[in-house]
Amino acid sequence: MHKGSCLCGAVKYEVRGDLGPIVLCHCSRCRKANGSAFASNAPVARKDLVVVDGAESLKSFRTAAGVHRMFCQNCGSPIFSWRESHPEMARIRIGTLDTPVPGKPTAHIFVGSKAEWDQICDDLPQHEGMP
Fold first, then answer.
1. Tell me, which fold does domain 2-113 have in CATH?
2. Interatomic CA distance for residues 90 and 87, integer angstroms
3. CB-CB contact of 43 with 90 (8 Å)
4. CA dist 95 to 84, 85, 87, 91, 116, Å?
5. pLDDT band at 59 (very low <50, low <70, confident <90, very high)
C-alpha cells in the first residue's frame, strides 16, 4: 500500500493496489496544472485509490476534454486526475506520495510540446505524444 497527502495535510489518500509505470508528462496542460516543466504521474485503478481523510477539501477542475483534475482547495496541491473516457483509471501525482516509491520513471511523454526552456538530461525513452 502507498500513502500520500497534499502540502497542507488536509487531504490524505491510500493506493491499495499497484502503481502503474511512472511517466514524466511534458504536455502544456500538465505544465500549467503543476506549474513546472512536467508532471510525474502513475496510473492506478480508481477502485484502489481511497481518500482516507479530507475528501471535503478535494475540488475538481473539469477540462473541455472531460479530464477531472483533483486538487486540495486549501493548498492547491494537485493529487490525481481521471478521464471520463476511462473512469476506471486515475493518475496520481507521484510527488504527493509519502511512502517510498518502488519504481523509477519509465519514459517522457508529449515531448513534442515540452517547454522550450526545459532540457531532458537522461536516457529514458522520449515519445512525441502518448505512446
1. 2.170.150
2. 7
3. yes
4. 24, 25, 22, 12, 23
5. very high
